[in-house]
What does this fold into?
Amino acid sequence: MTASRPSASVEAGEPPKPRPAVLAVDDVEANLIALRALIEDMDCEVVFAKSGNDALRQLLRRQFAVVLLDVQMPEMDGYEVAHHARKNPSTRDVPIIFLTAANNSEGMVLRGYGSGAVDFLFKPLNPSILRSKVRVFLELHLASQKLADAKAVLERRNAELKAAYSELQVTHAQLVQSAKMASLGELVAGVAHEINNPLAFVLSHLETVRRSLGVVEEHLPDSLPETAKYNWQRASERLREVSPGLERIRELVVKLRTFSRLDEGERKRVSVRECVESVLTILGHRLKDHVKVTTDFGSPDEIDCYASLLNQAIMNLVSNAIDAMDGNGAVCITTGASGEDYCISVADTGPGIPRELRDRVVEPFFTTKPVGQGTGLGLSITDSIVRKHGGVLELLDSESGGTRAVIRFPLNPSDLR
It folds into this structure.
């Protein structure tokens, strides 16, 4: 049974604050009504319990500022109620004031305090004393609630600040990484440009030399000395060998220029094959003869994307695969459509990523590499790039026993997740 009064008005938009509650426990209803009459005007809610078991049930249902507990009750007296309340972690701190009409004896008072009471009042009750004691606990309860609310607000703001700081760190790290990639792109573009001009000159003159020597060869006398014939044949062979070498340099320059595309903020249709091959060219010094790379380019080859960012994501995955294998093993790169998505898969023969770490490896600054050998940003930045494309980064088990990292994003840019 509960005696209540209308709640005080609250500001619009704010949930009403529940009034502190007082639990009155007595097996005589008249005593409960008398208690309510004494304290119901103190801006509190008075809840009745007519037995010890009922009191314990009420204590488990809600919080109380104080319990006014009668000592002498059938089945379970006040001492037993207090004892059970103190054993339960959720109710052990509720203040209890014992009320009794029994003779005032030192033994009874000591037993009351020993069972966990904070005070002991004898009937007939002095209204002023009862009200003053209840008021103290109501004020303590309200102060405790305000402190708890302030603590919750502080914890929430601390969490927000921590998240903002973490995001700031990630953003700063990504800006630094983007600046490095931009610098690398400019450097590669500059090198490609410097190589391309003299290369074009050499290729042009090589063709002229080849045609000129062909004309001369037609007029060589049959009586040419053997030494001269040997040198002529040797020069012709060397000339033929120079041509594929120069063509290889020309292809390398094309791939370098592909990698160095400075298209920040722009989506465009690009060849995925060109992206992958340009990344493999940049990482060629790390692959050498120790890492075997196989590629399987599916269709379509051209997709709509942020080309420089996609280059960076693919480079991060291939670089991680090389690191995982400690420089020896195999990498398989697969591209192509899968339903309405486009997938780029990089599988390695390394030890793999433990399942319990797969969610953590994309966290900023998390790395399993020794101190000084990794920033923990590669997969985090790759994940951000993939999400910018409306997709997801998946880390799966590879058939070769290592890790298969899959970039998956919509083929249609308008179908962003």
In short: Residues 269-417 form a domain with the Heat Shock Protein 90 fold (CATH 3.30.565.10).
